[in-house]
Every structure is written in C-alpha cells, then in structure tokens.
Amino acid sequence: MEFWESLASSAVRLTVPIGLAALGELISERAGVLNLGLEGYMAAGAFAGLTTAAVTGSATAGIAVAIATGLAAASIMAIVSVRFGAGQIICGFAVLFLCLGVVDFLAAQRANQRVTIESIALPPRQSIAGLADVPAVGAALFSQNVFYWMLLALAAVTGWIFARTSAGLSLTAAGHDPAVVEAKGGRPIRLRAAAVLLCGALGGLGGAALSMGAIGSFAPGQINGRGFVAIAVVILGRWRTGGVVAAALLFGFSEALQLRLSDATEVPVQLLGMLPWVVLILMLVAGARRATEPGALGDTFAPLEPGALERRLRALVRRGAPPAAADETR
Fold this sequence. Notes:
- This protein is mainly α.
- The protein has helices at residues 2-30, 38-56, 59-83, 88-109, 138-142, 146-164, 166-176, 178-183, 188-215, 226-236, 241-264, 269-272, 275-287, 308-318, 323-329, and strands at 126-127, 143-144.
- It has a two-stranded antiparallel ribbon.
- Helix 2 packs parallel to helix 4 (88-109).
- The longest helix is centred in the first third of the chain and has 29 residues, at 2-30.
- It is globular, with a radius of gyration of 22 Å.
- The termini are far apart.
C-alpha cells in the first residue's frame, strides 16, 4: 500500500507541469498555431519563478513572474509568426533556443548560489477533509499543492470556454479556416495572437510547477523534453481538454513508475529511463488514426487587404469567367 500511495503521489506531482503546459498548447493549436517554443517557455518560467520566490520569499511573486516570463517569451512568437507571417516551425524553434540559451546563461551566473525550495514559503498543501484519507489515492488526488488545484481549475475553465462560449467557437474557427472568420467580420490574427500569449503564460506556469512544486530546485536542462511531451499530449488527447489531462496523467504515471522501479529493482536505470518515452510512442501510434487536427494548424494566415476581394471579382469578370466562378469567389 505504501508503494502505491507513493507512486500515485509522484504520478500526480509529475503530471501537473505537463498538464499546465499542454493546456496552453491546446489553446494555441485549437487556434491554428503550432507552438514549438513551449519547452523554452517552461524553462524560462521554471528559472524565473524559482529565483524570484527565493529572492522575495514569496511563492505568489514567483508564480506571477513565471507567468509573466512565459508571456513575454510567447510575445515574440505572436509578433513574428502570427502578426508578420513567419513560418511557425522555424519561429518556434528560434524562440525555443533563444529561451534555453538565455536561461542557461543566467543560471550559470548563479552557479555558486544554488536556489532551492527551502528558502521559499510555499503555500501549504490544501486537503479535502475525509477524501484525503482514502487509501492509495486519497493523498494523491485530494491533498496537493496550489499548482495541482490550478491545473484542475484551468482545465475546467478551458473545457467550458471551448464547449459553451462564443470565444471558444471563434478560436476553433480560426484554427480550422481563418479566412471564413475574417469574411464574417472576425479578426483571426488577434485570436491567434491571444492564443499564443495564453500558451506562453501557461507554459511559464508549468515550468514553475516543475521547479517550485515538483522538484524544489532548478538546473539547466531540467525541463528535459517536457515541452515536446506536452505537444504530444495534445495530439494524444485529440485536441480535447479532458483527453489532454488524461494523456498527461498517463505520461506522469509512467514517469513516476520508472522512478519507483529504479529504486525497487536491479534493472539498469538507462533502460528504465526509456519507459516514459516508449509509452509515449506507443500512445502516439495507437491514436494516430483517430486524431483529427485543426484544419489550418501550422498554416500562416495573411489577412486580405481592403478591396482585395472586389479586385479579384472584377478580374474574373474581365477574363470572361463563368458566373459560377464569380459566385464561388463571392
């Protein structure tokens, strides 16, 4: 029983950073932007959040700075790729390497001042009376730090927005066919930019959840591919909020299982380290055929200039195009 309680607690703790980052990527991809800079947002948020909390002694300040840092990093993607139409993949990798380089440089300046969670007054665990005492899973599900409860709240809000509000419908439309959104008077560029900024904010929060909530320290390379895992989690979750959270939990469980087995067995740690990634690959293969991505995911969008549609119609008429072609253009 002790083994399973420890495994469940570790699984939930390791799920939270990936889940928060994956929610941000979900919002971005539903709007049509493939945000490959997510790992950089997480690294920036992890370093900035923990350092700020250690300097100020306030976990709240650390969380706020982590969110702001991720937001600032994502603004580069929003300006360069969404506003000016640069390729999403190239821009995403550029932001990723920029963030990782800056974080590694700043972390090296503090190499002799290792920051740990011991100097930070983190909010105590919030427990639900009665449920926290349930064997095996009570402590894991009903007695966690603030990042866990933030994940649950943000997942509920995100799911509600996409299912019940016009804002969620507009974001989804911008991800499937931004030209239609513009034709109906919407502004897909602004919708996509807002989605990218939200992705940055949640990515920074996910990084802080890792450094402040799960590990308690920061070191270069700490994110260790979790940003790309979050992107894969969105695919596994089939671009749905519930599916994304479930896929993040499955990866967190496999990662926690790998850690526990390395302590309890004599299997080489290198082989056990492959376990989460093998599980991820198998999940991607199993869900690939059922995945239905947003129609305009990864495509840049250039809004029509004023009068462009009218000019196109006149050109068709001058060339003697049949009425059906003009009607289709209209």
